[in-house]
Amino acid sequence: MKILLATDGSEHSAAAVDEIVRRPFPANSEVLVISIFEPPILTTGPYDGGVDMRVYQGLEDAAHERARLAVESAVEKLRVCHEGRHLRISTEIIRGSPKEVILDEAEKFEADLIVVGSHGYGFFKRFLLGSVSQSVALHAKCSVEIVRIKPETPAGEDTQ
Predict the structure, then answer these.
(1) Which run of H or E residues covers position 113?
(2) Which residues contact 15 (CB under 8 A, 6 or more apart)?
(3) What is the spatial distance between Cα 17 and Cα 15, in angstroms, rounded to a whole number?
(4) What is the H or E stretch that residue 57 is in?
(5) Is the dihedral of CA 122, 128, 134, 138 positive or negative?
(6) In terms of pTM, does the model score above 0.85?
(7) pLDDT in tens, 131-143
């Protein structure tokens, strides 16, 4: 089985990693762990003299580092929890739009399953920002699992 796991290092992505950790995949399954970072968008006004490219590069380097740490954290958890279970793990850190990159990489990897976390945005925020998980689910050519974090029940409230 070939599984593509997309992570951004958030608690929502950690839930997706945990979901893979809990599962007994067939021997020699492959997991491709990817993290995508978007290039920074810098705007300039008519009087500000332009953008210092060192600032731009610094922002891009920081985004790349966050992506690298997200992948590293996911891989560490997968290796520890699947030790001895023949799970092959590879990684990629990619610059681009998450919605597009996840779909492209899943197709190149010939994934059987894409696993992503859901940030759980409401309608308005999803409308403004777009939903990566929703877009992937709608356009993927393979199965997609969207992992959600269960909301915590406030202390003293009955869950029944």
Answers:
(1) strand 113-117
(2) 117, 147, 148, 149
(3) 5
(4) helix 53-81
(5) positive
(6) no
(7) 888 889 999 999 9
